[in-house]
Amino acid sequence: MTAAAPSLLSTRPVLVTGGAGFIGVNLADRLAREGYSVLIFDSLARPGVEDNLEWLKSSHADKISFACCDVRDRTAVSEAVRDCRAVFHFAAQVAVTTSLVEPRFDFDVNVGGTISLLESLRLNNPRAPLIFASTNKVYGNLSDVELAREDDRYLPQDARLRRHGVDECRPLDFHTPYGCSKGAADQYVIDYGRSFGLLTGVMRMSCIYGPHQMGTEDQGWVAHFVYRALASEPITIYGDGCQVRDVLHVFDAVEAYLTAWRNIGHVAGRAFNLGGGPNNAVSLKQILRFIESRLGRRVDIELSDWRAGDQRYYVSDTRAVRNGLKLPVPKHWEDGVTDLIAWISERKTNVRRGVRPAVSSKAASVTPRGARQVTTHA
Predict the structure, then answer these.
(1) How buried is 334 (Cβ within 10 angstroms: 0-12 exposed, 13-18 middle, 19+ buried)?
(2) Whether 288 contacts 218, CB under 8 Å
(3) Cα angle, residue 256 at apex, residues 335 and 317 outer, rounded to 5°
(4) Between the N and C ends of the chain, which has fewer C-beta atoms within 10 Å?
């Protein structure tokens, strides 16, 4: 099954849950530029996402509609799903730290919200594809992987793992309530394809970064480092800073999600590891040194204890997703981080000047029929 060309589109919207968030707003922008109508389903609980939504509305007044709703609200979910042409599911509780403090809340959002979406599709719109944003945390802390510390980064001793990264055959091993909830949702999405024939696919993401990311210590660490460095504020490193991740620019992530939708017959029932791959594998210390080189000054670093479930090394083996979907070579992390520094610098300048994006009256917020407006921390 392949998505229709924009010229053949009906008015049925593409539903993006968590669409005012970082990846969601970038995906919605791309969809709108290609001619699709988009329904943003978001509770706006995360600080800063209102600006993302305003920017999106002002950029695409005739393409964007908005439902201020919580993914745990079954009535709202059902109404949003009923007439959509596809679902990109980003709404989630995203912080390991929050999951340790409020594990039931984490479960209700990540597992309960996902099942509500799947059930609504099964009962009301079973041919609409759903692509789910999962996480590399489903593989646990990878404590069995023998590592060597070389310079300022950890690398696997196994040559194949060092060359290619972690592939989809790696056994699942959920750590922390967050890992359990995202992992359970990941498996429900796959099984609804297997058991009920829904057109579902999963992207197990590594570290995504780029414009419109409101980074914090708990989530979005690349942007968090840039915000703190630009403000000349200290940055806390949990662990020793040698932990390695493969970082992927959000535009490359959006390309993967859209290509997966357009090739849903190939993707359905499968999970893919999505990240920058070995060529974009970098340690926290390397990122910090690079930011320092771009700013021309040192950044104050504070060290703290390792956090629960943290992986000293995680790099995605991206051969399955890139070969299967014929994706382009992703942006190199140095170019991407340079672009992110410029975007955040401009945003901070506009905030100081009191400049906010204009919102067209044509892009008035709407709520699906019968939906209750609620908030969430997702």
Answers:
(1) middle
(2) no
(3) 75
(4) N
Quote the pLDDT of residue 350.
59
Percentage of residues in the chain having pLDDT higher than 70:
89
CB atoms within 10 A of CB 60: 20
HEC string for 232-261: CCCEEEECCCCCEEEEEEHHHHHHHHHHHH
Whether 335 contacts 201, CB under 8 Å: no
Round to whole Å and give the CA distance between 48 and 57. Answer: 15
DSSP states along 160-227: HHHHH-B-TTSPP---HHHHHHHHHHHHHHHHHHHHH---EEEEEE-EEE-TT----SSS-HHHHHHH
Query: What average pLDDT does the segment 25-45 reach?
Result: 97
| Amino acid (1-letter code) at residue 328 | P
Q: Which tens digit of pLDDT belongs to each residue from 191-219?
A: 999 999 999 999 999 999 999 998 887 78
What is the distance of C-alpha 271 from the center of its chain?
15
* Residues acting as catalytic residues: 178
What CATH architecture applies to the domain 13-363?
A: 3-Layer(aba) Sandwich (3.40)
- Beta partners for residue 39, in sequence order: 15, 65
From CA 296, how far away is CA 305, in angstroms rounded? 29
> Rounded to a whole number, what is the distance in angstroms from the first to the last CA of the chain?
31
Residue type at 316 in one-letter notation: S
Pick from 19, 125, 130, 66: nearest CA to 368: 66
Q: What is the mean pLDDT of residues 230-250?
A: 96
* Confidence at 48, pLDDT banded by 50, 70, 90: confident
What are the pLDDT digits (tens) for 135-148? 999 999 999 999 99
Whose tokens are 């490359």? That residue is 252
Q: Is the confidence at residue 106, as pLDDT, over 90?
A: yes
Residue at 259: amino acid letter: T
Q: Is 154 helix (H, G, I), strand (E, B) or coil?
A: strand
Neighbours of 150 (CB within 10 A): 10
Contact 54, 357 (CB under 8 A): yes
The answer to whether 133 touches 275, Cβ cutoff 8 Å, is no
Per the listing, tokens 């990540």 go with 110
Mean pLDDT of the chain: 90
Give the whole-angstrom CA distance, residue 37 versus residue 15: 9
